[in-house]
Fold each of these.
Amino acid sequence: MSLLSVRDLTVKFSNRTGALTALNGISFDLARGERLGIVGESGAGKSITGFALMNLLSQPGFIDGGQILFEGEDVTQMSKKQVRDMRGNRMAMIFQDPMVTLNPVLTIGQQMVETLRAHRKLSFEEARQIALVKLKEVYIPSPVERFEQYPHELSGGMRQRIIIAMALLLDPKLIIADEPTTALDVTIQADIMELLLEMCQSNQVGLILITHDLGVVSQVTERTMVMYAGRIIENGPTRSIINDPQHPYTQGLISALPQQTQPGQRLKQIPGVMPTLSDMPSGCPFHPRCDHATETCKSQVPDISQSGESFVACHEVHRLQKELASEAAQ
């Protein structure tokens, strides 16, 4: 049985005229201990997916349909108590900004102990010892001293290590990391991602890494899911998607990476912008930005089909791959 199985998940946001669809029938699975990357531009639905999995959507957002089966239990049907027991305990989330996540008026130790005692029957000293062990695991120097400090007394990288330690406090089966290195400089980003990877591997924890950075995805994840306008448009092994992208959008993302351009040349970019929820195009949502779009693309939403090692939602993918193979053979 998969650790996580998502089926036809639809998320909407209410407005004055009805509801706008933010996630449109997405489906995927995550095995125990597997590391999955979710990539795409801003507005693709990546973070909404993470919030929906944790049942953290607040009004006007709501889950309109589908299933989120976590260890065989449907998260969408859980009571409030069941959801509270699941969050932090069996499924944890690392947010973008640690200063927003951490309570500024409580010490690091108070927050870690409070988290532990909310889910376990522990004395203060027992919780303290577990917290100190976790701080050591994420290579926090002088953990006893850090335990007594407030968030503002720590650097950005240190705070993010604290967040990872807190996510691991209760030995969850799954961690959802939403852009965990956005607010950090490049050298600290690499350290944090290396730490997160090490923690997941050593504890056999499943990881969903939400990011726009394909470089990070290539280093950390085993499988990658590319999202566009609330839909999954490509899903496959990370190495395959990086080295042999099938969907024109994925190809555009790879081509836009700085390392794909010669020094002194203008960076490549995908023309146009992500459509808004209130102005979603008919057919394939990517067709207004796609050089290969046909009349079919403009009128019909593509089904998922296999191409190479990936599963792709594109009407023209097989034709394009035949053309590429023909060009390579000449």
Amino acid sequence: MTPIVLDGESLSVDLVAEAAFDNRPVILSGRASERVAKCREMVEELVAAGQVVYGVTTGFGKFSDVLISSQDAAKLQVNLIRSHACAVGNPMSEPAVRALMLLRANALSKGNSGIRPVTLQLLIDCINRRVHPVVPEQGSLGASGDLAPLSHLVLVLMGEGEAYYQGKRLPGAKALAQAGLKPITLQAKEGLALINGTQIMTSIGTLTFVKALRLAKIADAIASMTLETLRGIPDAFAEEVQLARPYPEQIGVARNLRTLLKGSGLTTRQGQIRVQDAYSLRCLPQVHGATRQVLGYALDKLSVEINAATDNPLLFTKEGLVISGGNFHGQPIAFAMDFMKIGMCELANISERRTERLVNPALSGGLPAFLSHNPGIASGLMITQYVSASLVSENKVLAHPASVDSIPSSANQEDHVSMGTTAARHAAQVIDNAAKVLAIELICAAEAADFAGADGLAPATRVLYNSLRSIVQPVVDDRSTSSDIEKTANALLSGKWLKAVEAVTGPLY
């Protein structure tokens, strides 16, 4: 597998996903290596000269006025990591930790942080040899960097903490040793350089975005199948209608729907059965398109952040400057994550309404009540709609914006924070819930197709139907469908069914 070349400038969301999900290896570019080495020389000169530099020859936060001798510069960094490693909660997933390590390495490769080349190389070696630190997901304020969770990453580089290696949770030193690696002893500036950044929120946010985009695309296909089984009217997706309100995303979704429904024997025309469909069908381009606008905003911000230097202070070797700034503040990502979870909430909301139309005999146009094969004796898929309603209701709570909150810290020196990591974590939960909501709609749509005549499905939606039927059999007799929903949601998040559909349609918007 061709390695990803880190240069601090050209990392993309897709490359982050490949490193995280597919274990693609990583190397440092030659130019980045030179920048890192030169910046490190500058740090050592500053320490030798005894210059006052935040976090190098001073304490941290409110202790920034406490001067530290050059003899204690290394001890200062070790104490920083140990004291800050107090995050709590469940460990981040291994893909998220891989993304985290990749983003941290890429930021350091810009040559503004003053880290030693050997320390950066150990971080890269951990990525390539799959030493994944145990990083608790809670405890970041999203400003001053993701300090507490990132410190757990650095503990492992020091030979402390814990890490997963070859499926086992091990002490950090043992994980490194089994991978053939040796821990480092942090030197001046290095601890601060490793934890003062937005990589927790950005790693979670980037992988969440990738999943969200997959869901947004496959949602068009699921909704198309629902429309077919309800004998819906595709006329509303005509290009003329979209050009009259020319949002590019609305136009793109409508084009997806026309492509997905091409060749369907189940759809109807205006006036054939009814003049127009309910909003959850007729307004698909407008609602799904609006979610795509939100995802576009999130992508724009993530693309900047994954190639940004976000620690403090930053060193500029050409100018000979050391500047204390605020690039660690996560406000841009906090807003993006809050916006993304709101957009994905609506994708789930409208999906649940389509599920209701499939199971409600007053709305389904002749389908059996709750898609039951023996109505009355068998409840069919009645309660799946309850689960969907529960999930979309939970999403509404999670959609409360974390970015509007701030609690001062460090004796009010750090008096405004972003809560961006909370926003990213909640966005990840919203996307997982949305996947289950869409899974329920797909299961119901496939059941409806069995009643309406699955042979009449369009070629593209027939591929999706067959994909589902490979893991979920028709609910002829009542049974627990929990595992069916979970398996379907995981398949939707993986993107494999999207690829199968796109093999028929070509790339969807």
